[in-house]
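Repro:
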Amino acid sequence: MTITPSRTSGVPGSRIDSGSVGAGRSRPAEPQPSQPGPAGEDPSSRGVLAKAALVTATFSVVGSLLGLIRDQSLARLFGAGQETDAFLVAWTVPEFAATLLIEDGLAFALIPAFSVALAKRAQGTPGDPVRALVAGTLPRLSLAFAAVGALLIVGAPQLVEVLAPGLPDPGLAVTCTRLTATCVLTFGLAGYCSAALRAHRRFLAPAAIYVAYNTGIIVAMFALGGHWGVRSAAAGVAAGGLLMVAVQVPSLLRQLRRRVKTAEGAPVAEAEPLNIVLMATVLLFALCRQSQVLIERFLASHLHSGAISHLNYAQKVAQIPMSMSLMLCTVTFPVVARALAEGDTERARRRVERDLSVAAAVVLLGTAVVVACAPQLIHLLFQRGAFTAADTAATAAVMRVYALGLLGQTMVGVLVRSYFSAGRATWYPVAAMAAGIVVTSWIGAMAVGRYGVTGIAAANATGITVTAVLLLSGMGPRSVPIRTRRVLAELSRPVRAAVIATVVGTFVAARPADPFTGLLAGSAAVTAVFVLLGWALDAQGFAPALRSVGTVTRRLAHAVFH
């Protein structure tokens, strides 16, 4: 999930600029002398990024909590049976739409484009390049979103047959799919607003979209579930999509209405056309990445009732560490894009290498906790109502296997931003992701008969790891030229710490009979061992990761008690 923060009065990070860039200002700021920091950034830039990360962290936590409440509500109201399986097939549409239009695809194309337009505006280009970009892209994209949504509504029966041919009740899945298909238009508009605002260093409004979205689904399930059943969740998706747009439009309009000083009689900037090739590459990459879900549900539809649900719940919880680890990249992606737009390759390289080390440290700690405490986590989160102890055991087993691919998922999230941050079309990420999909499909088909949902999860983890390795090996002329061998050497240190911490944490978490006590004991053991080993091994990402956690904790505490 991509949760990104923006502007408001009195909120830390309400103006987010990188260094001396001056994005979104009506006039350039006077240059201020400063000494570069350890990551090659000036202190003011690091402070602004820290504030943006704080806002991102705050809303990520709120959005993640609401996402958990949404999944808990789904499990409690409808369990993990045929009805939930039918909805989760329809859930494929918003999952794909979120990846293609909000989190990856559209953002990878639009943020660099807006960064270039803002750089031109700052350099005094006649007219307003930002408004010209909006005029040349938004109307055409809106028509495309509406057309695809209408096509999915009409072709819902055929889509369900392709996605899950083994469903016993395809009619329910078709109805839910027609409701969720409306999100193609709303998610597309929400993703466009989010990309434009993040490029302007406005992060609060984009950060609120998943809070609004999950709220819409939760309210709809409890308000309509008694009459509509699981269809209420699909209606909530449609309502949540509208809310995602509504929370961002006012902020974007304020940015577009800002007056830009131009010379008298200067020509108005012409509407910027869509870069069709770039758009195709980023959308195909995002489509290939999200197609892992298609493979999982296609294979699981032939297994026992509830198999799709077990996969879904396990994946949702397992991906929380990945979402938290990528928060910083959400903030720094516009920074990298702006650096490349200004020709500062060295600053972009340092930023990407730092992001990799910090994200790896965070996700590996989270992975160790998820693997060590999987039964306790699932029991506490979901085991109530229609969700039974057997469902807990099956979901926990799947989640432990899923977690093995979290480092690969995080690396793909960091590295692919580097490939597309220059705003140029490149087919290498698509090829790397396609190779991972082939691996996922082959292993899944071979393993599902013997290992069931666990084999499907193993195929997912293996395929995404292959993609991560290919993306890392292809860095250089195709992307930001990071030092690959140095990065791999640094990553090996937190990996070793995570392996040992997982073993210790698993042993400790299993001792108490109470799941809550086991979760606390296991998490504490994992954290202590991981941090101590990280310091002993001098892992590069540990110090900034711990500083970031400390800063966020202190600021949140100050906000609560003052």
